Amino acid sequence: MPLAQRREGATTADAQDTPSPCCAARRPPSPAPGPTAASARPTLARPGVPAHDGLVPLPGGEFLMGSAGPEANPHDGEGPVRPVSLPPFRLASRAVTNGEFAAFVNATGYRTEAERFGWSFVFHRFVSVAAAATVTGAVQGAPWWWAVPGACWRRPEGPDSRIKRHMEHPVVHVSWNDAMAYCAWAGLRLPTEAEWECAARGGLEQRVFPWGDDLTPGGVHRSNVWQGTFPDGDTGEDGFVGTAPADAFPPNAYGLYNLTGNVWEFCADWWSPTFHADVPRVNPQGPPSGTAKVMRGGSYLCHQSYCNRYRVAARSSNTPDSSTGNLGFRCAADA
Description:
The protein has 7 helices and 14 strands. Helices cover 15% and strands 17% of the residues. Residues 4-17 and 32-52 have low confidence and may be disordered.
């Protein structure tokens, strides 16, 4: 039976304000898994490791945020284009990897929400025959998302998969809540949406991608997105089907990797398609509350024929407890 795509009681307006489920499927409403002894423990910073280790200092300042171009999705709230000012901050050069998340789990005994729920969303082409036999449903409107029992960060395609050869790939099947737990342990935080977009632009004014306006300048792939016919045939012309290493492809002018494609990245902000239009634009923090969190950057499943949210101004969202095979995060800190 298909899984519910959204929470019960959603209104027509809610439906219009919710990005396409191609981006990252949402966990249907259910009782939250209770905290385990390990997950309930305080997640303190790692002893002896500098809290800002590995983060790139960024100058902040004023930049033009958003997009009003023809490629902008009218339901996502990419516009209006507006000047936003930020103080200096730091951002990780890459998304948190499987190896880094494993260090966190080994140090704390933390169990992710996918592990506690007992399942997560996996793209259908990655599920083995054995795992497919246990699938409990697919997402309405996005049947390529399968609910796979046993799928989690360490078994990203189901219980018969492993990450041993992918320790430098971004960790996936982590929820916003899991990302916050990791950040607390590392003495860091998630970036705000404004910080994320400022960093992704790399100093370029109103460009579509972190390197310019052409997705493949000179015919060269600069990101890990879908090539072929979505959702049945990814040719892998960029060198990857599924996730790529977190530092694959050249960085932008700020030295930051994979801000387009590969995996979506959670931000700190609550999601709204309209809140930012009329609020102060100095170090914006997003709405005070909501039901979903902003995610940015697109993923290896993005394709211009269906979901072109692999642009630096593009936005999407997911609930804080949801996890999928194309959703991760990177860390930030104050300067």
